[in-house]
UniProtKB/TrEMBL annotation:
<protein>
    <recommendedName>
        <fullName>ALOG domain-containing protein</fullName>
    </recommendedName>
</protein>
<keyword id="KW-0804">Transcription</keyword>
<keyword id="KW-0238">DNA-binding</keyword>
<keyword id="KW-0805">Transcription regulation</keyword>
<feature type="compositionally biased region" description="Low complexity">
    <location>
        <begin position="162"/>
        <end position="196"/>
    </location>
</feature>
<keyword id="KW-0539">Nucleus</keyword>
<dbReference type="GO" id="GO:0003677">
    <property type="term" value="F:DNA binding"/>
</dbReference>
<feature type="compositionally biased region" description="Basic residues">
    <location>
        <begin position="151"/>
        <end position="161"/>
    </location>
</feature>
<feature type="region of interest" description="Disordered">
    <location>
        <begin position="147"/>
        <end position="196"/>
    </location>
</feature>
<dbReference type="GO" id="GO:0009416">
    <property type="term" value="P:response to light stimulus"/>
</dbReference>
<comment type="similarity">
    <text>Belongs to the plant homeotic and developmental regulators ALOG protein family.</text>
</comment>
<keyword id="KW-0217">Developmental protein</keyword>
<dbReference type="InterPro" id="IPR006936">
    <property type="entry name" value="ALOG_dom"/>
</dbReference>
<dbReference type="GO" id="GO:0009299">
    <property type="term" value="P:mRNA transcription"/>
</dbReference>
<dbReference type="Pfam" id="PF04852">
    <property type="entry name" value="ALOG_dom"/>
</dbReference>
<feature type="compositionally biased region" description="Low complexity">
    <location>
        <begin position="9"/>
        <end position="20"/>
    </location>
</feature>
<feature type="domain" description="ALOG">
    <location>
        <begin position="27"/>
        <end position="156"/>
    </location>
</feature>
Amino acid sequence: MDATGPSEPTGRAGPPAATFAPPPPSRYESQKRRDWNTFLQYLRTHQPPVSLPQCGGAHVIEFLRYLDRFGKTKVHEPGCAHFGRPESPDPPCPCPLNQAWGSLDALVGRLRAAHDERRTSGEVENPFADRAVGVYLREVKERQGKARGVAYRKRWKRKRVASTAAGSSAGADKRGGSSSSSTAAGDSRSSSPAAS
Ligand SMILES: [Zn+2]
């Protein structure tokens, strides 16, 4: 995780030589830096201005909502004829354009990491790790999933149901196989010698 040694920018003492340029930061790193600057800018221009230590989950959610005005993802509302359909409508509908859930989720991940990097001794809570932010993202995911006919939630549910069903059927199988086991069926079965 901490193998960033040689790529650390250390050329503050003098101007970098034209022939030796440090390797450019990765796409993720530069994106993270851009996002962080955007966020700081948002806090600075906030009414009233918010300093980083004052910033909490509510501010993060406000920021995510603010970003929606630059969004490009059509999110159909329940009343729209295109609601629940993945294809984009041909005569455009008046539903709002939002940030896609995936973009917001990735953005929060980058900002959370950026905040962690700047934290000195853990005296400030990471607002991006706030529970409310997680709840907000989940709501966005569900709303967009429904609007586009992608049932994220159902898929999870089905998985969980399938696994519990498998577990219970295995239990039933065990119960049917051994007659005198009361509590630890598997254990008693393996330790007991041949039953007549
Ligand atoms: Zn629509």
